[in-house]
């Protein structure tokens, strides 16, 4: 079945009209192929229809992000968490664009498919589970809480990642939660370990975890470093151990390089350096997208004065930082 037949069967919409253009159909057929084209289009249209925030994004950015995900054989389903299309308010262009965001489960999938890894794992360690960690010998002793419900309620104290090649080479890495908080504070412009001042002040991360966020200020904490710190930390651990000591397949390199970027029509990454509401905004922006960010210097709908303040505190990321996190 050709792509154009699938489009003809769909109700008319701005996105389907865009996808029906000859140049766009040719692009889809070149990357996806006529056989898989209908399923690809159906998934993309469905994802956009069920997410009002994605409907605000430019259509080329939506298509390019989805095409990259398809080329990596990753699913856009939020339930699987392999990759996400996340809206970014690009102040420089005056548009909202969809970025490609790699989930940690997607990174795991790409590593497994590479065939290099016999074992690969990362997890959050709970209070009382870590018995000993020797960074010199890279030996760790852990006793996990057996009751899953009890373990879920226990506070996280650190993060562990490991891999083993098929030839027997092993690597382990452990970071305390405090080290991870410092890492997020340094590399994420949308996250602050300490309380901030300015037009849009934030409470400290410790107060956030304690539920001390003033009513009405919840939108300031849309970063997934706030919403799911453990998941972001696990992804960071995987990026650290794989990119610095592991073997990366071409697909893994491609995914990591383009993570958190808006994908141009030629499939090259365009990293968003700045995003903020219009000048003079004094209340919550009309659309604050759910953010699934990694350790990148990218801000989503962050108030301009707060962003300016944090920019002084946090260094710009070098190319090496962008790649290795």
Describe the global form: globular
Ends: how far apart? 42 Å
Helix- and strand-based class?
A: alpha+beta
Low-pLDDT windows of residues: 4-12, 273-325
| Largest sheet: number of strands, sense, barrel closure | 4 strands, antiparallel
* Residue-averaged pLDDT: 79
Q: Helical proportion?
A: 25-40%
How many helical elements?
Answer: 14
Ordered list of secondary-structure elements with their pairings:
Blueprint: H1 3-8, H2 14-19, H3 22-31, H4 37-49, H5 59-71, E1 83-90, E2 95-102, H6 104-114, E3 117-126, E4 130-134, E5 139-142, H7 148-153, E6 156-165, E7 170-176, H8 177-187, H9 205-209, H10 224-227, H11 229-245, H12 250-258, E8 261-263, E9 269-271, H13 304-313, H14 319-324
Antiparallel strand pairs: 1-2, 2-8, 3-6, 4-5, 6-7, 8-9
Helix pairs in contact: 6-11, 6-12
What does the model show?
Helix 6 runs antiparallel to helix 12. A hairpin with a 4-residue loop joins strand 1 and strand 2 (95-102). Mean pLDDT is 79; it is low at 4-12 and 273-325. This protein has a domain at 106-324. The strands form three sheets. A four-stranded antiparallel sheet has the order 1-2-8-9. A three-stranded antiparallel sheet has the order 3-6-7. The chain is globular. The chain is of the alpha+beta class. It has helices spanning 3-8, 14-19, 22-31, 37-49, 59-71, 104-114, 148-153, 177-187, 205-209, 224-227, 229-245, 250-258, 304-313, 319-324; strands at 83-90, 95-102, 117-126, 130-134, 139-142, 156-165, 170-176, 261-263, 269-271. It has 14 helices and nine strands. Helices cover 39% and strands 18% of the residues.
């Amino acid at each position: 079945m050709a792509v154009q037949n699938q489009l003809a069967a769909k109700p008319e919409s701005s996105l389907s009209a865009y996808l029906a253009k000859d140049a766009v159909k040719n692009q889809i057929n070149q990357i996806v192929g006529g056989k898989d084209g209908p399923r690809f289009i159906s998934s993309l249209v469905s994802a956009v229809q069920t997410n009002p925030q994605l409907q605000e994004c430019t259509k080329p950015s939506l298509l390019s992000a989805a095409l990259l995900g398809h080329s990596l054989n990753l699913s856009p389903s939020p339930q699987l968490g392999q990759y996400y299309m996340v809206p970014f308010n690009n102040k420089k262009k005056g548009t909202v664009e969809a970025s490609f965001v790699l989930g940690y489960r997607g990174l795991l999938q790409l590593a497994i498919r590479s065939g290099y890894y016999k074992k690969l794992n990362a997890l959050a360690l709970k209070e009382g589970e870590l018995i000993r960690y020797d960074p010199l010998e890279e030996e760790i002793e852990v006793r996990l809480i057996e009751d899953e419900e009890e373990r879920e309620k226990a506070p996280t104290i650190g993060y562990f990642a490991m891999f083993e090649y098929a030839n027997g080479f092993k690597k382990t890495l452990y970071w305390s939660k405090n080290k991870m908080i410092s890492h997020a504070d340094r590399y994420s412009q949308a996250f602050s370990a300490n309380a901030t001042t300015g037009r849009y002040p934030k409470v400290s991360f410790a107060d956030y975890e304690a539920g001390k966020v003033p009513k009405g200020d919840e939108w300031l904490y849309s970063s997934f470093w706030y919403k799911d710190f453990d998941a972001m930390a696990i992804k960071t651990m995987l990026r650290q151990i794989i990119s610095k000591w592991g073997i990366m397949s071409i697909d893994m390199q491609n995914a990591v390089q383009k993570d958190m970027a808006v994908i141009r029509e030629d499939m090259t990454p365009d990293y968003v350096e700045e995003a903020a509401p219009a000048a003079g905004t004094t209340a919550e922006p009309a659309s604050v997208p759910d953010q699934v960010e990694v350790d990148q210097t990218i801000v989503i709908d962050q108030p301009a004065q707060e962003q300016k303040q944090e920019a002084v505190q946090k260094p710009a990321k070098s190319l090496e930082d962008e790649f290795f996190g």
